[in-house]
Specification:
The chain is an all-alpha fold. It is built from 11 helices and no strands. It is globular, with a radius of gyration of 18 Å.
């Protein structure tokens, strides 16, 4: 099921939708399926994977960190940590369930998701995990790293080609300003959609393409303003909306 974007636009470069992003891919996060990594958000919520007085999300992260410290060359351990950090960002502790705004803990968890994924890639896995790549791509996008989001989403799409995965790739590409890549991914998304739903998908793609152009323009303006305010100092990385997060992405004038 593709995302209905109509009537759900939010201001650019102010809100992140990691909390809603977990719905994309459904069982991949919720039940830990489709990946070599065990566990998922449902396990965290029900407490099946941890105990004690601390947050189950924090427990998952701490357990995963211990695992990578004990065996820093373990691909599985880094994948577990990537997933645990993403789940923490997507949890009620990491982001507001109503609008997806990240808390300070959520922002840190998003950055740690990216860092863990990059450490995993440094191990040069023969076949990078596609399901975890999907979450890393969302994390990249939430920090406005859309070029990296595109690169990472390609891994997810190649592992699990579908209308949804190509649709997500198209959104990231449009947000990155790569219209050619966005159009190519969009064409695949339409091709893989049942014929009776294609007109609807085409309309949604036209909308995300428009939103992508608005987002690119807004980010450029933001960076220009930051550089001007800092008098030439590096603008740094901001947190912005994630395209494709259950229709929550987009831009308004």
């Amino acid at each position: 099921m593709l995302f209905d974007l109509k009537g759900r636009r939010k201001r650019v470069v102010q809100v992140t939708y990691v909390a809603l992003a977990i719905i994309f891919g459904g069982s991949l996060v919720l039940f830990g399926t489709g990946s070599s990594v065990s566990g998922g958000l449902i396990d965290a919520i029900t407490g099946n994977n941890s105990g004690g007085d601390n947050s189950v999300f924090d427990d998952q992260v701490n357990t995963s960190r211990k695992a990578v410290r004990a065996n820093p060359k373990s691909e599985r351990a880094w994948l577990e940590l990537t997933r645990a950090e993403f789940n923490l960002a997507a949890s009620p502790e990491g982001s507001d369930p109503n609008d997806g705004t990240l808390t300070d803990k959520g922002k840190t968890a998003v950055l740690e998701t990216v860092a863990s994924w990059e450490r995993y890639l440094k191990l040069k896995p023969k076949k990078p995990d596609g399901a975890t790549a999907q979450f890393a791509a969302l994390a990249y996008a939430s920090t406005q790293g859309y070029a990296d989001a595109v690169k990472t989403q390609r891994i997810a799409t190649e592992a699990r080609p579908s209308s949804n995965s190509y649709y997500q790739l198209a959104q990231f590409a449009y947000a990155a300003g790569d219209v050619k890549a966005g159009d190519a991914a969009a064409a695949q998304a339409i091709k893989r959609t049942p014929k009776d739903l294609r007109n609807s998908v085409k309309s949604q793609i036209a909308e995300i393409k428009k939103q992508g152009a608005q987002l690119v323009k807004a980010i450029k303006a933001q960076k220009k303003a930051q550089k001007k305010a800092a008098k030439g100092q590096p603008a740094g990385t901001g947190f912005g909306p994630i395209p494709g997060a259950t229709g929550a992405a987009g831009a308004s004038p």
